[in-house]
Specification:
By secondary structure, the chain is of the alpha/beta class. It contains 11 helices and 7 strands. Strands 1, 2, 3, 4, 5, 6 and 7 form a 7-stranded mixed β-sheet that branches. The chain starts with a strand and ends with a helix.
Length: about 290
């Protein structure tokens, strides 16, 4: 057993014109983060970048304007390549989740639920982390969140109310506060990078998920998506270059939470239980049935 520290960020919000919310980040040891921060800071300095923030990277009037627009593509490409090299050589573990917002809305309406996108993404990320670090203690920090304590508490309840085990039991979550932000917390910049790329990669194939994926067996996804891409003159897997390079640097342990997944998880895995009171009622009923 050991102690590890992780940094996470979100990309996409319910109120945005996005079809997905991604929640991703990286985990390593405290010493690992020290080495990472030294290398990341050097890569930023070598490229004349004060920090990395993917949304600002495309703003021609912001602090990262020298990397924005077609005329600055070479500089942007070099910056991201240097930062990806840091990710690749820092011994990081990547985990996260992506929630399809239209699918979550449809699921909630059909089942009379009110599951929230960001806490759900955090809960799914807890599951990924639990499989990687089942016996380890994890200190996990995410970027600033509106109503952070409630969001984290909701995600923890989703996890703790699972009737079989609590994946979040050895995890302690918090968010940046005070003077800390993505501008001066370097690991959050890496988390922003992978969360942004995960969402953008998914949006690249949104039409397939929306119009074709529903009801397919996982074993059929690759062939079906490849045929769909071919009909459009696009070669499978048709990744964003930056996502491909980043995900090749460190394997991304993550999944897409869509309507099919939600229905199966709700009905077959979670016994339709998402609250602590529901969990207690489940076990009261189970014990009463066993003793009768």
């Amino acid at each position: 057993m050991g102690a590890f520290k992780g940094y996470f960020d979100e990309s996409g919000k319910d109120a945005d014109p996005h079809n997905a919310v991604a929640f991703c980040g990286y985990v390593t040891t405290v010493d690992g983060w020290k080495a990472f921060e030294t290398a990341w800071a050097k890569a930023l300095a070598d490229n004349g970048a004060p920090y990395l923030h993917m949304k600002e990277l495309h703003d021609p009037k912001g602090p990262l304007a020298k990397f924005a627009g077609k005329n600055n593509q070479a500089a942007c490409k070099k910056l991201l390549a240097d930062l990806i090299e840091v990710v690749a050589t820092s011994g990081l573990t990547c985990a996260g989740s992506l929630i399809r917002l239209p699918d979550l809305k449809e699921f909630n309406a059909e089942y009379g639920m009110n599951l929230e996108a960001l806490p759900l993404a955090m809960y799914a990320t807890m599951g990924e982390l639990h499989m990687i670090y089942p016996l380890d203690t994890l200190e996990l920090i995410c970027d600033r969140l509106d109503d952070a304590e409630r969001i984290v508490a909701t995600a923890v309840e989703y996890s703790a109310s699972f009737v079989r085990y609590n994946a979040s039991e050895n995890m302690r979550w918090s968010s940046l506060k005070g003077q800390h932000s993505f501008r001066n917390v370097l690991p959050i910049q890496a988390a922003d990078f992978v969360a942004w790329e995960a969402r953008k990669e998914h949006e690249r194939k949104n039409a397939w998920w929306k119009e074709h994926k529903r009801g397919l067996k996982p074993t059929d996804w690759m062939l079906h998506q490849g045929m769909w891409l071919g009909q459009q003159g696009r070669a499978w897997p048709d990744h964003r270059r930056s996502f491909f390079e980043l995900s090749s640097a460190v394997k991304v342990h993550a999944g897409v939470i869509d309507y099919d997944f939600l229905c199966t998880h709700h009905n077959d895995i979670r016994n339709r239980v998402w609250t602590m009171e529901g969990r207690r009622e489940f076990w009261r009923a189970a014990l009463a049935k066993q003793s009768s």
